[in-house]
């Protein structure tokens, strides 16, 4: 074990897809989880997405040849396991951070959910009643603030 740095990082975190062909390791502080209700997340997940995020240098992927990227918009790609179909990553073109689907991270994650985004695009069969802040598009992320 290394000695503790001056900040208070989360412990090393691991995650993987359902079949295990794609595994990954995360180091350092991760963004709080956001629930995204946008139409793309809705259709690709079948519900809505819970995602954390990290800077690219915090993430190490193994089995990357089993990762397929789907360009879901002009500004982002979605990474999923070509063997089992698990959604794992969302990678914006600007490359400053990657989103990681929180459910693919091993427990305990050390994470908490912080907000709902794109709530104007949510489906109609559920209510959002957990008391967390809700945003349409005009939200700020951990990284947006840090990069100002
Ligand atoms: Zn898989
Ligand atoms: Zn979304």
Quick recap:
The chain has 2 helices and 10 strands.
Helix and strand topology:
Layout: E1 13-16, E2 23-26, E3 33-36, H1 39-45, E4 49-54, E5 59-62, E6 67-73, E7 76-81, E8 87-92, E9 98-101, E10 113-117, H2 142-146
What does this entry look like structurally?
This protein is mostly beta strands and 148 residues long. The chain is 8% helix and 34% strand. It contains two helices and ten strands; from the N terminus they run βββαβββββββα. The strands form two sheets. A seven-stranded mixed sheet has the order 6-7-8-9-4-3-10. It has a three-stranded antiparallel sheet with strand order 1-2-5, with no helix packed on it. Strand 6 (67-73) and strand 7 form a beta hairpin. The longest helix is centred in the first third of the chain and has 7 residues, at 39-45. The chain is globular and about 35 Å long. The chain starts with 12 loop residues before the first strand and ends with a helix. The structure holds zinc ion (2 copies).
